[in-house]
Amino acid sequence: MRHDHASAGCRPMSRQRRTAAPWVALAAAIAGLLGASQITEADWMRLGRALWRVVTTQEEEAPRRRAPRGEAELPTAPFSGQARVLDGDTLDIAGIRVRMQGIDALEGDQQCNRPGGRYACGRAARDQLAALIDGRDITCTPDGSSTYGRSVAVCTVSQGGREIDLNAAMVRSGYAFDCTRYSKGRYAEEEAAAKAEKAGAWAGRFTYPWSHRDRAGACGR
User: Fold this and answer.
1) Which has the closest alpha carbon to 210: 168, 166, 163, 178?
2) Which overall architecture, per CATH, does domain 71-212 show?
3) Cα–Cα distance between 133 and 157 in angstroms, integer?
4) Taking the complete model, does pTM exceed 0.90, yes or no?
5) Of 88, 148, 149, 143, nearest to 121 (Cα)?
6) Which residues form the TNase-like domain (predicted)?
7) Which of 12, 49, 72, 123 has fewest C-beta within 10 Å?
């Protein structure tokens, strides 16, 4: 669980630096493009990563700016409803942001390689989660923790008379991975099966999402 402490009316300098850093990176990427005699694919990818970090930073800071719902107000009991899929492991249910517990999905700006060329695997992860939900109501059971104003939970959906663990299904699809630091290996079997069948990102080459975020070890792997 993340806790931020600040005196009334005073914002810590460390938070200011964290908030400004993505904008500085974006400005540097744009300046690099403007000054380049020839724009390469790597230049466009660098600009895309900088833009994505700005967007995700704004998403993370938004709950604090709006602040009608503090971390203490996040649900502690299971809750259900229609879900808006934000990425491969993040949902919004009636204004409650949910981070799916024990997994880490490919980031929205990630590109992966597979036979036939590169593809937007991060977008594919988001689409996979949306397809699993398929417009049905889902139920999320919080584990009592939160991260960046999001309730950490295991989510399920009813399908054919049975409850599908969406966290497990995302790992089994090959677009998310067992985050052993939090899952304690609960989804190791699904990941092994996805890898063996070359499902999703396992069909080619990819970077683990925690490494893509420059957060090596975030999942304890």
Assistant:
1) 178
2) Beta Barrel (2.40)
3) 7
4) no
5) 88
6) 84-204
7) 72
